[in-house]
Amino acid sequence: MRYRNIRILLSAISAVFAIVIALIFVLFVLAVVISNENAFTWMLVLVLPAGILAFICSYAATGIYLGPIAKIALKVGQLAGGNLSVRFVDDRTKLASLGVQEFAESLDRVGARVRASIAEASADSKRQGQFVSDVSHELRTPLTAIRGAAETMLDEDISYEDRTRFCETIIRESERLTRLASDLLTLQRIEGDGEIVLNRVNLHDVAEHALDMLAPLLDAREVITSLTGEAPDVLGDPDRLQQVVTNLVDNASRVVKSGGRVDVALSGIKGHSVITVSDDGPGFGDVDPARLFDRFYRGDSSRTRSTGGMGLGLTIVKAIVTSHEGTVEAFNFPGGGACFIVAIPSLPPQSH
Fold first, then answer.
1. Of 80, 73, 147, which is closest to residue 114 (Cα–Cα)?
2. What is the C-alpha to C-alpha distance for residues 76 and 106, in angstroms, rounded to an integer?
3. Over the Cα atoms of the chain, what is R_g?
């Protein structure tokens, strides 16, 4: 029912009540004081003005009390229609009754949640679209190389050396696709709702296992590594934390020169266990360090295709660290080289 109709209805009801009361009063007066000859005149003089006055007063009163509610109802319709700039608390509602003010404040909180949800949904949609675009771009290059090599090998006159070279291209690009699929599945598992089995983890053992696993690769790249320090135990998944160290060390070892260094240091500070991975390479250039952890981002030197990276290693690192309620940061050394710092909440020492 429209706001004006409600006011008229309430005013009419008030007028009817006023007329009934005035009529009873007139009948009482007529019965006691006045002769019946003047009854109709007294009814016109007392009853009708009383009804009209009651209608006017009721209409004005309902306007004062229902006006802010009608305005709020109008704004609710605007919000439902997609106008996210609507605010329910304004100068008029501040002058209304306390109940109306509380109602408007509640609707403002609801509106804020609606705007936040829409903004989050929009951001998620944008990220998903960007993710699909990035994956498509990453797939296009190896698939194009595989197809080109396969089509060339159809030529019967191709030499044995060229055929071998194109076979190696197919194998290399196929391995790239395998790594991409593996990294994407890893991200899906980390960022999904899958349960993580948490245990007390010794970070020195985790870092040591990571370096042992990478030893053949680091030897082939002629990279010198070291592991120093100790850190308090943390509550986490040892396999995923080992992957953090593995990805950081592998990423650093790709950019240092032959004979270069990658150092892993453990420490504890302000209730956090800290893993620091530093190198003496060229650093990641003059870019925002936060961008290093974006999907498929590659810096000018540290994450180029020539190093074989897929641009997901640091993204996986951040996802794992975040799932452990930790933080990861990066910075360049003034004299060259980069440093990545992972901080995870520490566990209290075990009592013996």
1. 80
2. 12
3. 38
